[in-house]
Amino acid sequence: MSKKKNHDSGAAVQALRQQPAPLTIWGRELVDEQSLKQINQAAQLPVTQRVALMPDAHVGYGLPIGGVAALEGAIGPYMVGVDIGCRLHATIYDLDPAELHQDKYSYINFILDHTYFGRKAPNRHERNQHPILDDPRWGLLPEKLKHLKDKAAEQLGTSGGGNHFVEWTKLVVSENNPLAIPAGKYIALVSHSGSRRVGYEIANYFSKVAESICTFLPRELRRLSYLDHQSEAGEQYEIAMNLAGDYARANHEVIHRRIRHDVGTDLVVVELENHHNFAWRIERINQPPVFVHRKGATPAEQGVTGIIPGSMASTGFFVVGQCYTAERVLEHPALNSAAHGSGRVMGRGAAIRSLDAQAIRRKLRDKNVTVIGGGVDEAPEVYKDSRQVIEAQEDLIDVWATFDPVIVRMEKPRKGKTLGQ
User: Fold this and answer.
1) Tens digits of residue pLDDT in 155-203
2) Which of 253, 251, 277, 242 is nearest to 137 (CA)?
3) pLDDT number for residue 124
4) What CATH class does 25-409 carry?
5) Element of type H or E holding 165
6) For residue 90, which phi and psi values (nearest 5 degrees)?
7) What region does 10 belong to: left with phi over 0, alpha with psi -120 to 50, or beta?
8) What is the DSSP string of 53-103?
9) Which helix (H) or strand (E) holds 252?
10) pTM for the structure as a whole
């Protein structure tokens, strides 16, 4: 491949790969053709070493959701995504899940009092506090992103819209689980959200920078533009991405801390989390680092615990990775990755146009699921069967607990009908 250095941008100008990087797909029968096209496009990049596609895959910008890509010496902002470091976080309480029905309104109030969704945030005098706001990396952001520290303070401890949620669930833990929790039934608080406006603006800013550099890419691959990790922009993006990921973690820590204070800290058994929409740096001796991008996919290294949700009315799973050890991640066909959820089978617009809100509400009542907010575009019908998604990756993860939503809070939709109160 021909290659020359562009000293102004720090980008390596290269031809596309003559032979696409190796691709492995899990749950091929669950994957749509457009997602398959997108992952194949990522395999053509000159810096791509290996790609994989998880069974929850659906179309994204550039890299599909559920896509995994290892890039040598390069990092792709849109291959990480706009919700940088989005994650699942769970607190397990030593409480009988029957309480979620017997004392339903107390549990509803716990999340009403301590969660904010979409554009809502605490009043200035009630804002949450966390050490992340004192992180010196805020001062390392490009000038056009310096304002994000103020936005971070405003949105700390809040959740986004779309498929983000905070929910009370009935958790069933198996014997011989990786956290050595006694087998049985528990209540688990599970949350899903990310880096809010911070991640969104970082992603858009650096994606534009990457596209201005990678003008040698064909138009259909432009969303896969990347930054040389040693360039000024590449170094800035990696710092900003890691900051946004830590900020996403802080959001969950604040939410769970506030609710735990009301429920009872002495009742907490354990907390766990995992994240996606991130590029993990893999160092190598005398070679450039490789960045493993997991967009809507999660780490599944040996012994690593994770959370894979279903929908507002279908089963989710606590899992443990059974791929290779961390030092062998680049050898594994999945790059030590697993799905991050069930994956959509219907777009938001199609769901709003075609689904019957009344019928969905009846199904939720039949399952004894209480929804606060949430729209038809997040109905269970728009997602793949969560158990099929898990079965399609049995060689990547082991299930050690299942959880079923009982009380779910999401943002009220701006379009379409609301499913909950």
Assistant:
1) 999 999 999 999 999 999 999 999 999 999 999 999 999 999 999 999 9
2) 242
3) 79
4) alpha beta
5) strand 165-173
6) -135, 140
7) left
8) EEEEEE--SSSPEEEEEEEESEE-HHHH-SSTT-EEEEEEESS-TTHHHHT
9) helix 232-263
10) 0.94
